[in-house]
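fold-stage: in
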Amino acid sequence: MLSPALYRTEITHVRLAPVRHRFSYRGYSWFVDLDRMPRLPRWLTPFARFEAEDHFAGKPKDSLRQRVDTFLSTHDVDLRGGRVTALLQARVFGYVFNPLSLYWCHDAAGTLRCVIAEVHNTYGQRHAYLLPAGQPACVSKRLYVSPFNDVDGHYRVRAPQPDEHLDVTISLHRQGHPAFVATLRGERMVANARQLLRLQFVAPLAPLAGALAIRVEGIKLWLRRVPLVPRPTDEAVEFVTEHRGRAL
């Protein structure tokens, strides 16, 4: 049985074109089994609350596991009850921002069948990429994420399921060259009340702090006169999109 875990993370963004720009910020993420979501005492719920509605499309009362299974069924993937583990952020004082959530989907025999990378932007939109189990994977970019990057190019995703260490890399490539690289790294910690309370001091309001850090860096890029890319108007039609990737 998989016990929930916490990862103290460092997220780094490196922009390589049209200007070089780098920034990092700290946070933390939960690693959970979707069939055994953490059950916290009521006094801890302000610091960690999981809402299925924060991920994927689904019926109002669907669990997150049901939403993942619905998504997989649209791509003809049947796990036959196999385990789904996920790396994501919980709501803190009612706020959450999950720029990247990862789901490792196993069949009943325990074999990894696929990985889902769910991306959220700051405009309330999300996009789910279905990736093959092989690492790394390649998938065309489909979601407008940053006003300094258009919806062009493809991602290379390396996202092995974490153990004692978390090490995820996503790079955006255009014309055969990387234009942007994001890394997510961290060390595993036991998920208990003591650790969760400690994280509120070392990384207070982590989801909000992460969202603010991204906006502040956007202002810095604007001050450096990096050209703004208008948001595509047709994206307003659909707030949940899905796309299948391939192994490299």
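fold-stage: in (second)
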Amino acid sequence: MATQQPANALLIVLLGGTLAVSGGCVGYRAGAGTLYAADVQTVYVPMIESRSFRRDLGERLTEAVVREIELKTPYKVVATPNADSLLEVRLLTDSRRTLAEDGFDNPRVQENQLRAEVLWTNRRRAAMAPVATALPMDPVLGGVVGIAQATPLIPEAGQTIVSQQQLAITRLAEQIVATMEEPW
């Protein structure tokens, strides 16, 4: 009987300690869901405006961004501007330069660089301006993020301009969706 009382006391102390520790972690979230805002369920992604002379680059980037959002975030992309958040992207440049040439000045390695501006607005937290056809994305707004993605083109390895450009679009879309993560 005497050994049962210390065991009961130890059990009560352990139970009390467990409740105290777990009570302190009530607001703590764990897992991949903590990377994104919990108050947002839907995202509206308007067609990406492209300042490039290459055809369909804005449309291809829009498709890649929507695919990344659906794949890697808990958000649902909707076709209405009345969504919980708005992701605006402007493709600024699409440039290509030669990195290496052979003895006859033929390009052997080229680099394609895509640069974009991203503005993600959480309408649940911030007041939102009405959606206009040409919303100026000035740095004054405070949320504009500049993103660049460079990918090499090596024709001797069997790589085509189209495959290299698609790789750049996919990687740029991954970076755009990464800007939607919550700050630490």
